[in-house]
Amino acid sequence: MAKKSNKNASYTVPGLTTTEGHALADTLQQRLNALNDLQLTLKHAHWNVVGPNFISVHEMLDPQIETVRSFVDEVAERMATMGVSPVGLPGAIVASRTWDDYDVMRATGVEHLAALDLVYNGVIKDHRKAIEKAGKVDPITEDMLIGQVKELELFQWFMRSHIESASGQLENSSASTEKGAAKSVAADKSAKSIKSAQALKPGKLAKGEKSAKKK
Ligand SMILES: [Fe+2]
């Protein structure tokens, strides 16, 4: 005889009905999956970044990973507090997630950052939807999610700053896939550097460049 599921406790937090509390905790399960996926994806980029910006991007990612891991723990423990067992197992995450794996392997710093910008878009948009749901029944969960989005959006800005032009345009703005985002900055950068290299005659200084001899 199959054992009765013990996923849900008989209680939730005070002031909410058990049905309300458990339903909101179920919403948090998807946020838990997304954050678990995000911290692994950020580590993947940390290991696969190459090129001149290697150390700055490699080291920029670790504090983000640590913070996202703390959010994983915070969301899981909020679920347990609300009377629903958090599921942190890899198979369950893969079975229930609504997105594909990050698909950039070895790539330059800006290529990873352009692709990760899209990853952040997805996580943040869904976090905001969860904030809306939480706001209807539980300001405590809402407050937790708002605090997380504030940090996630700050991290996304760190990434966007690397792919933003002086006029405020994001170089990956027309991309809808991670590979496309990486490609858009790679093509742009190489096209620009080829163009500026061709414009320079041997011995001629670039615009704004000063001769060292004048010092
Ligand atoms: Fe490392």
From TrEMBL:
InterPro entries: DPS_DNA-bd (IPR002177), DPS_DNA-bd_CS (IPR023188), Ferritin-like (IPR012347), Ferritin-like_SF (IPR009078), Ferritin_DPS_dom (IPR008331). Residues 206-215 have a biased composition (Basic and acidic residues). Coiled coil: none annotated. CDD domains: DPS. Residues 26-164 form the Ferritin/DPS domain. Residues 168-177 have a biased composition (Polar residues). Residues 182-205 have a biased composition (Low complexity). Residues 168-215 are annotated as: Disordered. Pfam families: Ferritin. SUPFAM superfamilies: Ferritin-like (SSF47240). Belongs to the Dps family. This is DNA starvation/stationary phase protection protein.
